[in-house]
Design goal:
Chain lengths: 588, 507
């Protein structure tokens, strides 16, 4: 990749790369589909049994009945004949019939896809709005050359740490039940889209806004801004142009953050009773009902690829020929002093978390006292008790280390993997797109098949899908970096690949990837916990923050403190990470 | 350069225009008002249809809950068979029953005849996955004349009229049975409501069937929404989006307005099953120690929020005859003391399983864990989704399981449950119980034809089973149904088979 110094060879390179990407996409998609087709054979759980259960929960699993199911579905023919049969039907618009319901799969799956896709578009609107709000301050001050201090992004961190399912429960209760402004559930018209789109878009918007706010100061630091200002361009023009410059780097994040919601919004779909693709795929996966599962996976693969292409086209449009002709100015962060408050915030969060952990560790997190159920916070129980009368402070304190440890490890591994794959550039683009839309639950099911239920399995499953944002980000930033003029200068001065990597490429990518990882830390905690029902992760009653949130979710309204504690702790962790990173970096 | 934003806008807007899809067949926001004025009931059901309402699947209960389909017989509140499409029946000899049909019409306009009954029952008998209610019996059905049906069984079947009340054996018109083996109850039943539209797994519309033999239903129709999430169901009820919502989770029940909360004792019993086949609970004294340590009544006020009864045995208050026929349990093993438990388990951990499908079970498992640990056991939980752990359960890989089970299955007769769960050859024998006196007691109950005697023998079998300590009943669940105060005539059925019938209406 470092060889293309002449524009002719660049063009040849680009042609070759395009082929590379196309092949990568097909290989990645095909690999995923084959893996899904093998699920029942990998999982060592008899599909006849799971299908029978899905059809009739109280049915006795007699050998005769299982044999009947097996014969009816032709399970003895093995996975590959099934796959071939399914693929053979696709050109005719026939995606097979569901093993459970016996009905044609295609209408069901496309209907669910349409629902989820529409919801995703709603979430996209919310995401963009929130992202704009989050980065509005930086945009306003920057365009007027008044950006004196770096924003720590604590606001974005707080919003990004809010669990989607909790937000969904809250919105459904407040706006659906109490105020009655919107339907509390169902999918009957544009009105029923508002609440779920908000629940999904708020944290995504904060995440993207956080990244944008992180990249904008660098754009405002570029020489053209001063020139334009002196020439009398309005701040609006300057802001717009800076946005164009930075959005190109953030745009790929929409794929794993927003587009992935088509298949990955199971919790919100459940709470709002939306007949979406996430639930359909989950039900099919649990019942090992292959035809709908394969069809859903195929649609997600196609969606991921299409979205990837669209994003690529948008980036090209935004950056223009500069990207192609290696004439992009480098986008390097300004050395803005950190705000003094950032250090304070970090210190405060660290102190609060520390106090929480110490106080919690002195208490018993497992003691069940059914008489002390759902007690409000008091001197005896500073954060109240949960539905089994366990002390929430104790559970938070004992869970802190385990939660943060696993989440940090998973995030670190994902970020490194993402960075490496992102550097591989074109070859991994297809894989990134395909894996971006894969729901974590499906990854979890595939992992349990191999690792069995364990903490290790949960970490693996999350790593399997969590690297995509970093890979997409690294790839995009590297592409821009490679298109800078000074990189060419460096090369012509005889810089080797290692030097380029160390002095130019990594410094350009690392801070942004770090910021991304930090913003995603709370999500990682929640995704880890969301695999609990597959037996992945710590088994109850071991306290773990994600579990605390999900096991107390039914009590949101009855005893809000049961979720306020864990949610607050998660926010503290997120803010600490963001502000800690902010103040840490500015000292370098 | 100026065209850039426009291009982006177009690119973003295009898919949005292409896909403005919502659930097909929705009518927008004014349906609520229309439904009300037309006297239609809006119902939220919990379990979405899996096989397009085929009576041979789980969906059968929907058909009976909404009074779409009827069998030859029905069950009354005490679980006895009462006339439905058959107005009377007699047992000619131990294996032959004769049913006299009443005059009734199918929802597609055709008459209910002996031929159509034979056709319906033959299809059930020959179904690829045979309905559970026919798992231990083969029916031979013949038409004697146009309104007389003879049903014979290979071996004597004393509960045949109870069996025929099962929603899986509902009588549908000839039109319902397609050549590919699928069965559609849409417009083919005989009940007071007919299905007019089924939209995927989310909605169904039912209209009153004016030709019903039992008179016109008071409600003009039913709009069904399936809401799988319990909290969402409670929310829909509280927001006034539905008139009836079934199965409100105990965690949400107290949020419901007091006069919309109706509780019914359910035939569901939650218990702790101990694995007698392998692991630490092969030792009878350890089982006894576990039984004495575990106290289900601690769960009633807490986890179940009062919506349960402390366990009295396998059968709770919903089985009306159980309490006064209960047999004292004798001959139990002597419990191991805490010290003995520790020495006998010798460092082995007790693997306690629970599944997440019912929210209360994992919570119960945690309480049970603490109770067992007090008695000297070392406990490790394994909590997963049911289908993820079922093969392991059947293979006996756990020492104990917190289990929720319906004690009166399709037949409305308790023997089917006892036979599958506790007999040595039972297919759902998670406890791995092999006990000759238990087998004997269940077999003898199964053969008994006289109802009262049969019930007595069932209770004897219960005592035999409890003697082995293979199962420790914890609580008998109660079901909370959300019923708006503007609705009257909702059926509160412990067997969860009926909900709406002819008399249900909006005030």
């Amino acid at each position: 990749m470092s060889s293309g110094t002449l524009s002719g060879s660049i063009a040849a390179d680009a042609r070759r790369a395009r082929w590379f990407v196309a092949v990568g996409r097909v290989v990645a998609g095909a690999a995923l589909l084959v893996t899904v087709a093998l699920l029942p054979w990998l999982s060592r759980t008899d599909p006849a049994l799971t299908v029978l259960r899905a059809r009739s929960a109280d049915q006795d699993p007699t050998p005769a009945r299982l044999a009947a199911v097996r014969e009816q579905l032709g399970l003895d023919e093995g996975p590959f004949s099934h796959l071939a049969h399914w693929l053979g039907g696709l050109p005719r618009g026939d995606a097979g019939i569901s093993w459970v319901s016996g009905e044609p799969v295609l209408p069901q799956v496309t209907a669910a896809f349409a629902v989820s896709f529409t919801l995703m578009l709603g979430a996209l609107v919310v995401t963009i709005a929130v992202a704009v709000l989050v980065s509005a301050r930086t945009l306003y001050l920057g365009s007027r050359q008044r950006l004196r201090r770096e924003s720590a992004g604590t606001g974005a961190a707080v919003l990004a740490a809010l669990p989607k399912f909790l937000l969904a429960s809250l919105l459904a209760t407040v706006f659906g039940v109490w105020l009655g402004w919107f339907p509390s559930s169902g999918w009957t018209g544009p009105g029923s889209m508002v609440l779920p789109a908000l629940a999904l878009g708020l944290s995504s918007g904060a995440m993207i806004g956080g990244l944008l706010g992180h990249a904008l100061p660098a754009a405002f630091h570029e020489p053209w801004v001063r020139t334009w200002r002196l020439c009398g361009f309005s701040p609006g023009r300057i802001a717009w142009h800076a946005l164009r410059r930075t959005v190109a780097g953030v745009l790929p994040q929409f794929l794993p953050t927003v587009v992935a919601l088509v298949g990955g919004a199971v919790a919100v779909e459940k709470i709002f009773n939306i007949p979406g693709l996430g639930r359909l795929a989950l039900d099919a996966a649990l019942a090992q009902d292959l035809p709908p599962l394969q069809t859903a996976t195929l649609l997600l693969v196609l969606l991921g690829t299409a979205a990837g292409l669209l994003i690529q086209a948008l980036r090209r449009t935004l950056l223009g020929p500069a990207l192609r002709d290696a004439a992009l100015p480098a986008l390097h962060p300004a050395a803005l002093p950190r705000r003094r408050s950032t250090g304070w915030v970090a210190g405060l969060c660290a102190f609060a978390l520390f106090a929480l952990v110490i106080a919690g560790l002195l208490r018993d997190p497992l003691h069940v006292d059914t008489a002390a159920r759902l007690l409000v916070p008091s001197a005896a129980h500073p954060l109240g008790t949960d539905a089994l009368g366990r002390d929430l402070l104790a559970r938070l304190g004992h869970g802190a280390l385990r939660t943060a440890g696993v989440a940090l490890a998973v995030t670190a591994v994902s970020a490194v993997v993402g960075l490496l794959l992102g550097m591989a550039g074109r070859a991994s683009a297809g894989l990134t797109e395909v894996m971006s839309t894969l729901p974590a639950v499906l990854a979890g099911l595939l992992t349990t098949a191999v690792t069995g239920p364990s903490v290790w399995g949960a970490a693996c499953a999350v790593c399997l899908v969590a690297w995509t944002p970093y890979a997409a980000q690294a790839a995009a930033l590297l592409e821009e970096e490679r298109a800078t003029g000074y990189l060419l200068a460096s090369i012509s001065l005889g810089a080797g690949p290692i030097h380029l990597l160390r002095r130019h490429l990594l410094p350009a990518v690392l801070p942004a990837v770090l910021r991304n990882a930090v913003l995603r830390l709370p999500t990682t905690v929640l995704v880890l916990a969301s695999l609990g029902f597959l037996g992945l992760g710590e088994q109850p009653p071991t306290p773990e923050w994600g579990r605390l949130l999900s096991e107390n979710q039914p009590y949101v309204e009855l005893a809000p403190w049961t979720v306020l504690g864990p949610a607050g702790a998660l926010v503290l962790l997120a803010v600490l990470a963001v502000s800690g990173m902010g103040s840490g970096r500015s000292r370098l | 350069m100026r065209s850039v934003p426009r291009r982006i806008v177009v690119a973003l807007a295009l898919p949005m225009l292409l896909s403005g899809c919502f659930a097909p067949g929705d009518g927008g926001s004014n349906t609520d008002a229309q439904a009300r004025s037309a006297g239609r009931l809006r119902v939220a059901l919990a379990v979405p249809p899996v096989q397009a309402l085929s009576p041979y699947s789980n969906d059968a209960t929907v058909l009976s809950k909404l009074s779409v389909v009827e069998g030859l017989t029905a069950l009354d509140a005490d679980g006895a068979a009462v006339p439905a499409l058959a107005k009377s029946w007699i047992r000619k000899n131990p294996t032959l029953w004769v049913f006299e049909l009443r005059k009734a019409t199918f929802q597609d306009g055709t008459e209910v005849t002996a031929e159509s009954v034979v056709n319906a029952l033959d299809h059930a008998n020959a179904a690829k996955t045979k309905p559970r209610v026919l798992s231990d019996v083969t029916l031979t059905v013949k038409a004697e004349d146009s309104d007389t049906v003879m049903v014979s069984t290979k071996t004597a079947d004393p509960v045949l009229p109870l069996r025929l009340a099962s929603p899986a054996l509902g009588i549908l018109s000839v039109k319902a049975y397609a050549s590919d083996g699928t069965v559609s109850p849409v417009g083919t039943g005989t009940g007071p409501f007919k299905i007019t539209k089924l939209i995927g797994k989310t909605k169904a519309a039912l209209d009153r069937f004016d030709g019903y033999w039992g008179g016109k239903a008071k409600a003009s129709g039913i709009d069904v929404t399936w809401i799988a999430d319990g909290t969402a169901r409670a929310n829909a009820m509280r927001a006034g989006e539905v008139d009836i919502a079934e199965w409100i989770p105990t965690a949400q029940a107290n949020l419901l307005d007091k006069n919309t909360r109706r509780e019914v004792p359910s035939v569901r019993t939650d218990s702790l099953i101990l694995n007698t086949r392998s692991g630490i609970f092969t030792d009878e004294s350890l089982r006894r120690a576990a039984r004495e340590a575990v106290n289900g009544s601690a769960l009633v006020g807490s986890i179940f929020g009062g919506y349960a009864d402390p366990a009295q045995g396998l059968f709770g208050p919903a089985v009306s005859w159980a309490a006064h026929k209960r047999v004292e349990v004798t001959g139990r093993a002597v419990a191991a003391t805490t010290a003995e438990v520790e020495s006998k388990t010798n460092g082995r951990t007790l693997r306690l399983a629970a599944y997440t499908n019912r929210a209360e079970l994992p919570e119960a498992a945690t309480v049970v864990q603490q109770q067992l640990e007090k008695a000297g056991f070392t406990v490790q939980q394994d909590v997963r989704e049911y289908t993820q752990m079922e093969p392991d359960l059947l293979a006996g890989k756990y020492d104990a399981l917190v289990f929720s089970r319906v004690t009166l299955l399709d037949t409305g007769d308790a023997v089917a449950y006892l036979a599958s769960d506790f007999m040595s050859n039972g297919v759902y024998n998670i406890a791995g119980l092999k006990d000759s006196s238990v087998d004997q007691a269940i077999t003898s109950a199964a053969e008994e034809g006289d109802t009262a005697q049969r019930q007595q023998k069932i209770m004897q079998a219960e005592a035999e089973i409890l003697r082995t300590d293979a199962i420790v009943p914890l609580v008998h669940e109660k079901v909370v149904q959300g019923v708006s105060s503007s609705v009257e005539g909702v059926l509160l059925d412990p067997r969860e088979r009926s909900l709406i019938n002819v008399g249900t209406q909006l005030k």
